[in-house]
């Protein structure tokens, strides 16, 4: 097991290194921040001084090595715009994005699992057909449009829910969280639904497919032949087996949810990392963009690892193989 | 409520059909047999003849589009076809147990053996978890699993196929059922393990009075194990009788063909005599004897449906032209 972990960690380091290079070169290619940052009527001397201060006078490879050397010490550069460490800027906004993403994931499981179970157990009932049709909508409607519709209906027409911001927050572990206050929860509800729509559909489809496949297995028939109650057959024998693919996919999806919460955050003015990165791209704030992308890469790697480990807890067959290597 | 003379199981005119899009599949069509207490019935026939569906009909696990359409399944005098789902659930795994064909597939891969055994105990007995665990351990010991206490913690994939089937048998035995339906439980195992399991099961049914239905397409297994034999073909029982007599002097041409295709019965060097042709599709079976197209003795009369008739004392078959001549003819 520890050999396995070590190998995974080495892989992770290699991926981070490769990504840093790609990201750095990629961001460099997007455009020259000088045009945006320095006022057009600055004279030549002022321009050169500013460029040198930002470290933009060095050749690309040297800029990269400076970045790399500092990154090793946990310094991902200072924002051109805010003149603050990019890392701190992002970390400040991370709790908002994280709680939104987790809220959306939990909602996807709470709504998706029962609906998928029902649709799998009663595939021909009208309700199941309605659920499946709904899941197609969840896949195909664009997030920003659904977000605007939610605001139209629940904020503008009915006035039930607030449409922008996080609402009041409360501190936990030194960070500010919305879900700890009632108002904060109300603020989070619509963005979380908006972000979870795709995932609800995904969970429904995965669960349904898993149930359809699992109930045909001999071990389910054997469980029934043992005289177990239907609730136990479905709740334990079927459910534990479908949990394996669902946890895998939803876990892996968590990364993309965080990365792509950009749209939802923009629609609901949710002050998370997604909103920050959109603003930073607009002004070509390179250090923030690079730092953001590096953090996303790290997050994907961590999530993949955690999913793999969870998977081996859920599926005893995987555990054995891991031990064997 | 059931006298000593009444059999554990009596199946009368059972019909189980599958209502598929392509049409009605008459998987079990007018099947009758009895299994007395402590006796073993061997249910044999080619693949697709309806043996498993017969077993699932008895234990009440025929899934849509299939359904028991008519007939009676009298278990200790109670008609199982009239019981509610909850009453059936109470019998399943308790008074009637089933063992499946493929031991690699019958145990849930993500649950530990103890979980899968204890839940079976608790489904039918009001006992503590500890007591349930004790019973599970005893059952594992009974089917010859070494160090049962440790093995309880294992997952199915940590067992060999033979061991898994022993676990499945141990689960079936947990409540000392009155009837066990064993659906080809040893087909997937190698010959030595098959022999061991057969011997153990036989001993159990003799000592506990458990009635046993042993489903197989291997006549040599039935020969050493069963008291009675019922031969199925295309959803019907075509021949029934005491095992020694049927194997010695089969009456139905299909039984004759089956016996001829058993390797050990063939002289060395002779090719196996397979029954020519294929099992007919059960979908829209043509009228008349279902074996007609493959039967060497078929004639015009066989265009009608042959009824089940008692041809010799205790011997029944569904055939217009049974092998009633000399026993010598079949022995050749
Ligand atoms: N779900 C189903 N839908 C339609 N037909 C079915 C279904 N299940 C079984 N059948 C039909 O019932 C017939 C009998 O099947 P059964 O499984 O009882 O055969 P078997 O004698 O047990 O064969 P084997 O030796 O291969 O196990 C088959 O011809 C099959 O086509
Ligand atoms: S009834 Fe006719 S076709 Fe059918 S088995 Fe007997 S002889 Fe053969
Ligand atoms: Mg079968």
Automatic annotation (TrEMBL), chain A:
Protein name: ABC transporter permease
Organism superkingdom: Bacteria
ABC transmembrane type-1 domain span: 94-307
InterPro entries, sorted: BPD_transp_1_N, MetI-like, MetI-like_sf
Transmembrane annotation, as ranges: 12-31, 100-121, 133-160, 188-207, 242-269, 289-314
Family from the record: Belongs to the binding-protein-dependent transport system permease family.
Organism (species): Caldovatus aquaticus
Pfam families linked: BPD_transp_1, BPD_transp_1_N
Subcellular compartments: Cell membrane
Lineage, uppermost ranks: Bacteria, Pseudomonadati, Pseudomonadota, Alphaproteobacteria, Acetobacterales
Automatic annotation (TrEMBL), chain B:
Listed SUPFAM superfamilies: P-loop containing nucleoside triphosphate hydrolases (SSF52540)
Membrane topology: Peripheral membrane protein
KW Signal (keyword) present: no
Transport recorded as keyword: yes
Gene Ontology molecular function, alphabetical: ATP binding
Domain called ABC transporter: residue spans: 9-259
Principal location: membrane
Family annotation (CDD domains): ABC_NikE_OppD_transporters
Transmembrane residue ranges: none
InterPro entries given in the database record: AAA+_ATPase (IPR003593), ABC_Ni/Peptide_Import (IPR050388), ABC_transporter-like_ATP-bd (IPR003439), ABC_transporter-like_CS (IPR017871), Oligopep_ABC_C (IPR013563), P-loop_NTPase (IPR027417)
Subcellular location per the Swiss-Prot or TrEMBL entry: Cell inner membrane
Gene3D superfamilies, per the entry: P-loop containing nucleotide triphosphate hydrolases
UniProt keyword terms in alphabetical order: ATP-binding, Cell membrane, Membrane, Nucleotide-binding, Transport
Source domain of life: Bacteria
Family: Belongs to the ABC transporter superfamily.
Official protein name in the record: ABC transporter ATP-binding protein
Protein's organism: Caldovatus aquaticus
